[in-house]
Design goal:
Layout: H1 4-47, E1 52-71, E2 78-90, E3 94-108, E4 111-126, E5 142-145, E6 149-154, E7 160-167, E8 170-172, E9 174-176, E10 186-190, E11 202-213, E12 215-218, E13 224-231, E14 237-240, E15 246-250, E16 253-261, H2 267-272, E17 307-310, H3 317-325, H4 328-345, H5 352-372, H6 378-400, H7 404-426, H8 431-449, H9 465-469
Helix pairs in contact: 1-3, 1-5, 4-5, 4-7, 5-6, 6-7, 7-8
């Protein structure tokens, strides 16, 4: 060939394009598996209960104010009734929640979803119920109010297992629903009319067992709210508008405590204004699980204040596999550079088809990783896939490069790359820094190894046409 180096570079470019197409297909497989996992979580939530939000207890009473208005004159005078409907609400001054959470794993096929069982003891105290006294806004109007109702709202009422409300020593009869115009899911009990407007403090105690999927949120509804939660999940994720003031976790579980004042949260005003509670699908819209495998919880600015605990697995195999696949191009490039260095330094010839086979082996690692991680722990899956690929590449490189002494360093280099990738997958805050430093060290090694290479010597020198024909001319003279 006239320009063998250019021809080979073009062939290697075509190989790289084919490998990029293969990596793209593998990324599509990972995204599909993530989507299946999200559908599994949605299926469990549809069959059991979705992410939960706990709000209450709170007392409300629906009232109607009506009055007569006279219109017309003389014989055409008539009286019409006008009315105004409104809701009286009493928030607790002190709200104390003592809860424990136990975990249970549910599965659909290969995919597993964490569900929880919450057992909570809630104590709510009202200093006065004067806010339940209705006042006329029109002179001579008539006021009529329904019985005071104490309500507890949840994100998904199907998750309520047992509940009991005590008013003093008396157990109140609980019924489904809340009779609240905005937060309709939950339970309620009718209070005696005598509590309306009473000046003495009133205390209610609630025992509640609630199940849900992956996430639990609580609305700090009291003037002072204190929540203490213990659970058997070793790596909880605390999110929402407020982080716990005290927290501790380990292999056996976690303990967290929140202390909030109404001076620091707008939860009471948010509920009075009917703002939706976004965590846990509170606003009567179904919870939509994102297809990237992440949590379904968001807290936009137009939502009521709440805090939450997510019981998700931090080592999501699909998320880690997706992150690993993004390094596929770098792996292929570094491997091609290593083979090219052997080819350059040892005066070897490696065919583009051999480059293609080496790159295909690297691509197969990512497919092995995601498939094995569905059956094994991610660490063991990574070890098995990496070991298989390192052995295969080391064996093939020994024949491709002409000796075992050349194949072993290439295999060792691949093992080092896979080890570095595993470290990067475990890091979150420092992954970029570690990866950048490692890439810089690789570039340094390549530059040091090739510092004495005569790159112009890799291509044939341009031929002098005069020398090639053997002709010679003398200036000023004609050839005979």
């Amino acid at each position: 060939m006239k320009h063998p180096l250019i021809t080979k570079l073009v062939a290697l470019g075509a190989v790289a394009i084919l490998l990029l197409i293969g990596l793209g297909q593998i990324e599509d497989v990972v995204r599909d598996r993530q989507r299946y996992r999200s559908l599994t979580a949605q299926s469990v939530a549809d069959s059991l209960a979705g992410p939960q939000t706990l709000m209450g207890p709170m007392i409300h009473s629906a009232c109607v104010e009506s009055w007569d208005v006279e219109t017309g004159k003389g014989d055409e005078r008539r009286t019409t009734e006008q009315r105004r409907e409104f809701l009286l609400t009493a928030m607790p001054e002190q709200l104390q929640v003592r809860s424990s959470v136990s975990m249970e794993e549910r599965a659909r096929g290969l995919h597993k979803v964490n569900t929880f069982n919450l057992k909570a003891h809630i104590t709510a105290q009202w200093g006065t119920l004067a806010s339940l006294q209705a006042h006329s806004t029109v002179k001579g109007s008539r006021l009529q109010c329904g019985a005071p109702i104490v309500m507890v709202a949840v994100g998904d009422a199907r998750g309520i297992r047992t509940a009991q409300v005590l008013h003093g020593e008396q157990a109140l009869a609980l019924k489904p629903g809340t009779f609240h115009p905005t937060y309709s899911r939950g339970l309620h009990a009718v209070l005696p009319e005598s509590v309306r407007g009473q000046a003495e403090p009133m205390t209610l105690a609630l025992d509640l067992e609630l199940v849900g999927t992956e996430r639990l949120a609580i609305v700090p509804l009291g003037g002072n709210t204190e929540v203490k939660m213990t659970g058997g999940w070793p790596h909880p994720s605390f999110t929402g508008r407020f982080l716990p003031s005290e927290r501790d976790w380990g292999p056996e579980g976690f303990t967290a405590q929140w202390r909030l004042s109404s001076l620091a949260t707008t939860a009471q005003q948010d509920i009075l204004n009917g703002r939706r509670i976004c965590v846990g699908g509170y606003d009567d819209s179904p919870v939509q699980y994102p297809t990237d495998g992440s949590s379904p919880s968001t807290t936009p600015r137009d939502c009521a204040d709440s805090f939450s605990v997510a019981f998700v697995d931090p080592v999501n195999p699909y998320t880690l596999a997706d992150r690993a696949t993004k390094y596929g191009l770098l792996f292929i490039a570094l491997t091609f550079v290593a083979v090219g260095l052997f080819e350059l330094m040892k005066r070897l010839r490696v065919h583009p088809v051999q480059y293609l086979l080496v790159g295909s082996a690297i691509c197969s690692f990512f497919l092995l990783l995601v498939s094995l991680s569905e059956h094994l722990a991610f660490g063991w899956s990574y070890l098995a896939a990496a070991t298989a690929c390192v052995l295969l590449l080391g064996y093939y490189a020994s024949h491709m490069l002409g000796s075992l002494a050349r194949g072993i360093p290439l295999g060792a280099g691949m093992a080092l790359l896979y080890g570095l990738l595993y470290v990067l997958l475990q890091l979150e805050q420092t992954a970029l820094a570690v990866g950048s430093i490692a890439l810089f060290l690789v570039l340094t090694a390549v530059m040091v190894l090739t510092r004495k290479v005569n790159w112009y010597g890799l291509t044939p020198a341009p031929r002098n046409p005069n020398v090639a024909t053997g002709a010679a001319t003398t200036p000023g003279k004609d050839a005979p």
